[in-house]
Structure formats: C-alpha cells, structure tokens
Amino acid sequence: MILVTGANGNVGREVVKELQRLHCEFKLSTHRKNTDHIYLDFEDPSSIRPALQGIKKLFLIRPPHLADKKYFEPVIEAAKEVGIEQIVFLSLLGAEKNKIVPHAKIEDLIIQSRIPYTFLRPSFFMQNLLTQHGDELLNEQIIFVPAGQGKTSFIDVRDIGVVAAKALTESGHRFKAYSLTGKEALSYYDVARLLTKHLQKEIRYTNPSILAFWRKMRKKGLKRDFIIVMIGIYTTAKLGLAKTVTNELKELLGREPITMEEFIKDNLEAFMIGFYSR
C-alpha cells in the first residue's frame, strides 16, 4: 500500500494520475478531518502514526509553508517504527550541496533513519508560472521573480509524476537520488519571450530586487518562511547554480522531457482564460 501526501499540489496530482494509470493500490492523505482520505497533518503529531499504519511506501512532499525539520522528525520516526519499506521524497535540485534549504534537512533525517529512500531532486516547476506567479503574470503581464539573468533548467511536473510512480512501483530505485531537469536551461527573459510569442500578448520579466520581491510577497499574504525558501531558490538561479541540465530524467522516462514551449502550448487555454476572465 502506497500513501501519497500533497495530492492536491502540482506534483501530487500528477503522481496520483500515473498511479491510477498503472492500476496501483494507493491512499491519499489530507490535513482535514472527517474525509474519505487518511488524516495526516504535519502540524498535529498525534495524526502521524495512525496515518502510517498498514502503509509500505510513502510519497512525501513538504508542505510549502513548513520549513522547520521539527515537523518532519515525527514522520520519519513513525515511518521507521511501523516498518515503512521506502520513502520517495520530493526534494530539490542541488539539495545535497545546499544545506540551508529545508529539503536538505529532511533528506538527512531520512538517511539517518536508514529507511530505503528515493530522492527526486527536480529543478524549478514550469507550472509555478501559473500557480505561484499567476497573479502577476495574468494581472500585470509580468514575471516577478528575483532571479537576475540566471538560467534555470525548468521541468514539467507531469514528467516528475511519471518518475515518482516508477520509483514507487519498480525495483532498482532504493537508496538512489535523481537530479531531474528539463533538456534546456532558460532565463526568465527567455521564458517571457516564449510566453509573448504563443500568447500574442507582451509578457515582461521585471527582474526585481530581493527586497522588492519580499515586500510584494508579504503584501500578498505569503508566510515569511515560504518567502525565504523562494528567495533562496531564486538566488540559486541568479548565481548560475540552477542551469544544470542532466540526462537522468530522459533516461528514466525513456523519452525527451517536456520543453517549456510544449508546456506553454499545452496550457494555452489556462493562460487565456486567466487573461480574459480579468
């Protein structure tokens, strides 16, 4: 039995789709009580052990608003106690070298537990253009992230979902860490040009300062820890550390990864509805 956390998020939804396609038996967790799914709230330690009873494999996603490892220590401890056979953790590209990000601290907890693991370390999600940054993109026709001229090897979460399902259902993935990137590295100026081309609407990358980004995100109501993690990720790009392109995703998929241009074309309707419903 597989338990999928974060099933309502970008990646979690794609993992669920792929497990359904493979006709696998799995359950979903939720932080809400009294639903058809398993109650698991990282901020409620009493919910953790009951949620993991009878589970053999755990797909673990860090809720974006939780950065402190204290929320995950009880999860890993309970997983060890109930005999979880594998944890597939959605980490971050370069987490093994960047010990500041919360993903690295969670990886360390899992390694120390000696539970067989698979770390998926993807680069920045293409879908974040519509989710995290959709407000600025659709309301102001701008991309508002402090990434400078640095390039990022963007990845489509649909590809991550396929790889996650493989790691959960196939042999040969235990005690492995995969650095997952798209096939090309693009700056946000490049992304703005592609969006302008296909949406036939001018999109600008404004390249804000970290302070301007902080102020705008706080004004939107985002939590401080979440903004700090975002700034850390964009600073990585700004310093040229997010442009790494690997072949691991292609090898795991058995095909080329989805490109940014393909992502934009596949989501034209979502972009257009966002523009013209405002």
Notable characteristics:
7-stranded parallel β-sheet; Rossmann fold; alpha/beta; two-stranded parallel ribbon; 278 residues; 11 strands; 12 helices
Radius of gyration, taken over Cα atoms and rounded to an integer in Å: 19 Å
CATH class categorisation: Alpha Beta
Shape: globular
Q: How many E-type strands?
A: 11
CATH architectural grouping: 3-Layer(aba) Sandwich
In CATH terms, the superfamily is NAD(P)-binding Rossmann-like Domain
Straight-line distance between termini:
44 Å
Mean pLDDT: 92
- Count of separate structural domains: 1
**Describe the biggest sheet?**
7 strands, parallel
Low-confidence parts: none
The portion of residues forming beta strands comes to 5-15%
Summarize the structure.
The protein is an alpha/beta fold and 278 residues long. Helices cover 42% and strands 14% of the residues.
